[in-house]
Amino acid sequence: MKLAPPQILVLGFAAVIIIGTLLLMLPVSSVSGEHLNFMDALFTATSAACVTGLAVVDTGTYFTGFGQSVVLVLIQIGGLGFMTMATLFALVLKRRISLRDRLILQEAMNQSSMEGIVRLIRKVLIYSLVIEAAGAILLSVRFAFDMPLPRALYYGLFHAVSMFNNAGFDLFGGHDNSLTAYVGDPVINLVVMFLIISGGIGFIVMSDLAEFRRKRRLTLHSKVVLSMTFGLILTGMAVIFIFEFTNPRTLGPLNLGSKIWASLFQSVAPRTAGANTLDITGLRQATQFFIVILMFIGASPGSTGGGVKTTTFTLMVGAVISMLRGRGDIVLFRYRLAQERVFKALTITLLALLLIVTVSMMLSTTEGLPFLMILFETTSAFANVGLSLGLTPELTQLGKILICLTMFAGRLGLLTLAYALGPKQGKPLYKYPEGKMIIG
């Protein structure tokens, strides 16, 4: 029986997670030399492969260099996609990329056609390698002022890969520490934010920007992604700065410069990296809920991030504006959007809301903790963010399973998962008569 591309993607990701789980269970993976239990190993492998960053054990103190390397490889495979990595080996070995492989790559990269798909994969690999290498060098130089050079080089590489792939895993010890020691450090803030944004805008936009000098124009997709990305970053920065300005647990004790850096960083990170320079548990509830909204929107299509994506959010906002203005079409940058795109955006948004609400209700029953904490954790898992209010290490076994499934669904995409379970049907050959009903 031949499997459809969505089914191959689902099974491929599942296989990567299982292999990672078995490797993390080996005694050589833990500092104590003991076996990590299956559930915790599965959770860690899922979080790494789905580039989320939620952790039930501390990555920096629990795992050995081997265990951390396993996590890092899972992050790289999960961020770029296992089919992208398989294509890399095929290109190195000079193997021909078959039509079936191209179909799977088309599904993995969320492309509308196979045209130029292998060329795009080459660009993905080159951009990733160059950006991660540059980030690793800059971070290593900065870390070298605080730690021995070999450790600084290792930390620079690990965090560059983690942040570019929007994973949020770190080695600084403690579930909530992350980059809090560098809250006002311009170098760490700028480099990490650049890595997060680069991974989050998507490889299609990166390719468009790289060819801008030659073409002298951007596609509609790139214009929407870039404008919405920076619009959300500036809005998030302003909201966090205002809400937390006097909070003694976050921005209150910082000087003005550090407050600006922290607000900007914490606006970038929820989309969808999971790093933090502020204590997330110390944020006011209004700010925490606002971060839930940022996490839900997430990164952009064809990126290393999750969420419903910036383009989906833009389409939904555009539909509302068009309806309020009495227009029949959604127009963005002088382009009219097809109705099919609106239906797809609506489907993704409603499925995401349904998943988050359902999992949150179930966790409210199994965990018995404040609902905002549960909603925050669930949205973080779905959007593959990794920010946490401290719930993850305290999850019950059932809670861990629910969060694992949520991370898996969020990384693969709800439509891909739906098509894998029940492949989409062709267009019907007839139409029903139009009906009328009252709305609103």
From TrEMBL:
Q: Which residues cross the membrane?
A: 6-26, 69-93, 124-145, 187-212, 224-243, 289-321, 342-363, 369-389, 401-421
**Any idea which UniProt keywords this protein has?**
Cell membrane, Ion transport, Membrane, Potassium, Potassium transport, Transmembrane, Transmembrane helix, Transport
* Taxonomic superkingdom: Bacteria
Higher taxonomy? Bacteria, Bacillati, Bacillota, Bacilli, Bacillales
Task: Kindly list the GO molecular function terms attached to this UniProt entry.
Answer: potassium:chloride symporter activity
One matching Pfam family is TrkH
Instruction: Please list the coiled coil stretches.
Output: none
What is the name listed in the Swiss-Prot or TrEMBL entry for this protein? ATP synthase subunit J
